[in-house]
Queue: 3 jobs
Job 1
Amino acid sequence: MAPAQPGDFLSLQFVQPFVRNDGAAKSLHFTLGELQSRMLTRMPWRLEVDYTRTMMGFLLFRPAPVHICMIGLGGGSLAKFCYRQLPASKMTVLEINPYVIALRREFQIPDDDERFTVVAADGALYLQNAQGENPDFDVLLVDGFDQEGQPPALCSQRFYDDCFAALAEGGVLAVNLHYDHPDYPVLADRISRSFGGNAVEVLAEEKSNAIVFASKGQAISPRNMSLPHSLAGLDQAARMQLKGELVRIAWEMKNLDQHGLA
């Protein structure tokens, strides 16, 4: 499947994001009221926004993925973290907005190489066009937002069905959703339906976002998690940053499991 080129999307009139720099950090915005991404200038690989640390909870289920796909580049927080901390993993990042891609150097996102690629593509169409090919992704991260929130194409039942089809057996999906959005219960239910009920919702620490984890095959269950294995491949700084969050996710899942909700 030939990837789209940045020029293919210019006629769609994308909103150009802007960058705020306070000296210690840079942040990416479409509007002043919504933060898309934040990067510490002296530690560009660090996960500064709480929900990104929650999304890394996929390590509890797939601690050593061969191929990660991410829909939505933003300021590249998750992309940079995975590139640095999971050197054995290949990563494909899909981003539809050419103005976002143009800021990759501003946010110190690595250049493309043999294991890291940023593709100018509509994530929903990319997964649709992948139908019929062998499932390739061990982890699929969905974090696609624009100035109006989450695009309808990235939260339809068809889209979540395509996510399921694009994952290899045992693959894990992690979707970032706005928890206080009125459509949140509908979207979480769609994900669960596409994965045959094999899904769990975990609120981010600040509770404005929720991450829905779903698995193709292996049950999303605390019985299938190992914190030592999840942290084993990370350097010391990353382990220190993620350990507390992974423990919190595991505890919440165990609590849900005890109540028959996971």
Note: The helical segments are 50-55, 77-85, 98-101, 123-129, 157-166, 184-194, 227-231, 236-258.
Job 2
Amino acid sequence: MQSKKYFSVEPARFKLDGGAMFGIIPKPLWHKVHPSDELNRIELALRLILIQTDTKKILIDTGIGDYHGVKFDERFGVTDSASPLEKALAAINLKPDDITDLILSHLHFDHVGGIGKLINDKMEPVLKKAVVHLHKNHYEYSHKPTERDAGSFHVADFEPMVQWYVEHKQIHWLEGMEGEILPGIHFKCSMGHTPYLLHAYDDHFIYMADLIPTSNHVSIPWVMGYDIAPGVTTEDKKHFLDFIMKKNLTMIFEHDPVYFGAKAAKNEKGDFICGEKFKHSDNDLSAAYSISLN
């Protein structure tokens, strides 16, 4: 059996409107657990997971990228610098060409933006040696979304990168609601946030992406206003949390600025809550962390 090491990689942080992040939940409730700034924005992590085995270095998601411009960065409070993904990988002594596999949860700009970078006004892939694992139905949806969520898909940025991987025969199209990505790494899809949102998991962790973006979204009614079908999300969450508890998995929160993960639990009423939460040392401000998911 191959050994595994896990790293929490955070190339940047950004901000989104707190009301949009918590949907129908009143501000007096969410503001207690996730305070906003003067523009009602809350700070969010862009947390990636790097899985290192004897033969593979597998990255999940890419962050937001560095090419959007000053107006965009100011609007979303982006805190990255030039080449954020490369710098985050360097913090764990890796180079972009070391990455063998890239798993994309979905194609929203804050998850896939780091797949490319502008070189001489042309988008070039950052991870040129990687095989990209992408859900085919989600990719198709990204080209014909509703007007409500079209702004989340920066097709002009990611499409040249996807085609580069297709042309270089470095893409693995995933299909169905669940299956295997790589030996020992599987996926399940949720449908409420965006169709075929992919959640990678193994025997220790599951990457929650935007189904449960922070530890404060474990409660079933706490659903983002960004979700294309919030009612579906509530059903997705119940199904996934049952699965997570049965498998005793650690949830990895892509956007939580404090906790990188948590166990799922139920309270005395039978409602889902966070169990044990896990965070990095407050004194460790490096861009990546080794994490134990035993």
Note: Confidence is low (pLDDT under 50) at residues 282-286.
Job 3
Amino acid sequence: MDRATRITDNGAWAIEARKLRVYYGDFLAIKDVDLRIVRQKITAIIGPSGCGKSTMLRAFNRMNELVLTARTEGEVLFDGLNIYDPDVDPVEVRRRIGMVFQKPNPFPKSIYENVAWGARINGYRGDMDELVEESLRQAALWDEVKDKLEQSGLSLSGGQQQRLCIARAIAVKPDIILMDEPASALDPIATLRIEDLMRELTQKYTIVVVTHNMQQAARVSDYTAFFSLDESERAGVLIEYGPTQQIFTAPREKLTEDYITGRFG
């Protein structure tokens, strides 16, 4: 993502949205979002259903473009560049900004090949065995699978499958990991494993997570962005963003307080 003319950015921000709008056809999904994500921290995106949380998340790595009717306006700055610049390769964006989905989606391949696949198609030339082990260790899964790497990734439990998907994302050496409700399909024990893992991963990665679970957002995130619906256009808008403790204990906006205390949403 090199270019002669680069946009000056603050080293504290991993990625920044400026006046971001996303449309699906004529429908405005999110409206004029300005949001700076702090490097090597966990930012939670919360809000009622239909307020554009997942659209916002996917705007950070151009995943919305996989929907044929999607259109994006505004800027998303990453590594000093607008990722929506026509000269920027979306495949490279998605390598640098990885994604973990709501439902674990391992490939119908071996555990080993699930982790190696992305690195291989991105031209990795190093020691693949070492990379697979390192990625599985970072995903807190190595000790559970090291003796069955040739077994199908689909043979693992739901929580293990999700950690395998995290290992797969890590293996291509991203800067940012986006997580869309990563624990919503998991039991409480597996959920806590994923939350612990997220905290560990911030030693190397920036994480942005969409969650409907208020307790999870309060437990795991450093910063929280609260989205809601604009009453006139029914588009998702950013209502309030700040340190998680402040958002949950002393929100500045009444709408934020009403949502967190369960008065609406």
Note: The two ends are 40 Å apart (CA to CA).
